[in-house]
Design brief:
There is one protein chain. The chain is α+β, with helices and mostly antiparallel strands. It has 2 domains: about 1-95, no CATH class; about 110-145, no CATH class. It has helices spanning about 1-5, 20-30, 35-45, 50-55, 65-75, 80-95, and strands at about 110, 130-135, 140-145. Strand 2 and strand 3 (about 140-145) form a beta hairpin. Helix 2 (about 20-30) packs across helix 4 and helix 3 (about 35-45) packs across helix 4 (about 50-55). The protein is extended. The two termini are about 35 Å apart.
């Protein structure tokens, strides 16, 4: 299913990288918590098994970051197709793991506000003091928001 649908967005011209491999790489990056395209490429370079699982030929160079970025920009134009693929993956996981999706964990990330809490009036009245737990019970306080 994935291969047939990804052929719809194949670019014209010389054969490029496998669209399925690019999608798998982005999914792997999301699962691994990779924050940027450069970090994703670095992870693929450092871990040839990951590159193989994604579908890249490890005897050839990995795609350049501009290739990943162009692909991602094209992918956003087909959000409906992406949602359909993700729904199918979720339903397949639900078949394999019956309790899949029953329990959801939520983590918050503190977002810093440029507002100063001691200035009157506060330029950002919706901001407040937030903290994030760290190693060995250490907490980091800041002024801003929680991103859920």
């Amino acid at each position: 299913m994935l291969d047939a649908k990804t052929k719809l967005i194949s670019p014209l011209g010389r054969p490029g990288y496998s669209l399925e491999a690019l999608i798998k790489a982005y999914l792997a990056g999301y699962i691994l918590g990779v924050k940027s395209t450069n970090d994703l490429i670095r992870r693929l370079q450092e871990n040839p098994v990951l590159a193989l699982i994604c579908g890249f030929d490890i005897t050839k160079p990995l795609p350049h970051r501009t290739t990943f970025n162009r692909f991602f920009n094209k992918l956003t134009k087909y959000q409906g197709l992406v949602d359909e693929c993700l729904a199918e993956v979720a339903s397949r996981l639900h078949e394999i793991i019956p309790d899949f999706g029953e329990i959801i964990a939520i983590d918050t990330t503190p977002i810093h506000s440029h507002s100063h809490p001691n200035k009157n009036p506060i330029s950002d009245p919706e901001a407040g003091f937030v903290y994030k737990g760290g190693a060995q019970g250490k907490y980091k306080w800041g002024f801003g928001y929680y991103f859920h």
